[in-house]
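Need Cns1/TTC4 wheel domain-containing protein's 3D structure for a figure. Predict it.
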Amino acid sequence: METPAAKKVYTEAERLELAEKLDKACDDFMEELAANQKDEPKKPFDFDEWCKEIDNHPAFMKDLSVNGELPEALQALQALKYDTDGEDLLDTATNHKDEGNKHFKYKKYRWAIDCYTQAAKLMAMLRCCELLSEFEKTGKRTLQFSTNFIEKLQNPPEGREKEFAEAKEKLEIIKEIAAKRVEKEKIEAPKRQAALLKDLQKKEKILQMFKKRGLEFKPEIDYKNYREFEWTMLDVNFPHRPTTRVDFEPGTDILEWPLMLQYPETAQTDFLTECPETFTIRTLIEPVLEQPAEWDSNHAFQLSDVRVFVALDIFDDEQIKEISMEDTLGDVISSKDYLIVQGLPVIQIYTKSYIASKLTPVEGKTGIYKFKKN
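Structure prediction for Cns1/TTC4 wheel domain-containing protein:
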């Protein structure tokens, strides 16, 4: 038996060059036909002769020589139509699968099904290419290329019936699960849309309340763009504590804030939650200072022995402003040059003895202090 000629492997540049030659050959062929028709006397159209001329051109040939080398132009046409880098196909299939996983995660099941189907088609194509390679090694060239995944499942290659049957069964299971989830999505979607609308309305309301109160935040919050606003901009996170943030007092429009109490002279802090903006500073800190903390063995921080301050967002970051015990939390955080960082108001508490020794009033500014220089 005569050994078939080895198949030439084309580079991308060679494929492009051959494609250009093929285009030119087709153009020349059609021009030659037109020229011959002009030079020759007009005769009745012979369909059989026309088909013969077309079939003999490499671009339209049906019967190919198995043992002989194919025309160069036809090899180029086959390369353009059929040659595909396996790694590219695998990457594309993987991308379809990953995209399907993303859609599945966000409950977009119809899109997920489409992506999974595309991935399955490409994987089937890769498997078919492997089968073709095996057949080519044994000299069998009768197997035809096909990218139709469903056709391959229904008409598997000989000897592969079990594999394709299992693949078809798994695909049907996936489709059945996805179909059930689509039905479930139809029921849950209205509820989810209602919840999203409610959340959006709450965002709009709370941002308008921030604006009305003249609050300033870092990072800065755009009060008008409530659709892009994220609750995480107000989330307060501390180790070993659940995440908390400002919220409405149940059944009212009163804001309840998390609050940090700083004791700079001892480098200690306390953390409070659900502090209504209508409560005075005295009301908020009195329960905290009623009993001495572990680090305050002498109970130096008693309500009668302390004064309360806030840091100012100005060029001189060493300046602090004293606030009254009778000020409400809302009054304090709405005051000029007060900045709420990451959704957490902060109040500083100093002992009177520390203030006398370490702080000095800023000339011309009532209630403003700065630290003495050593």
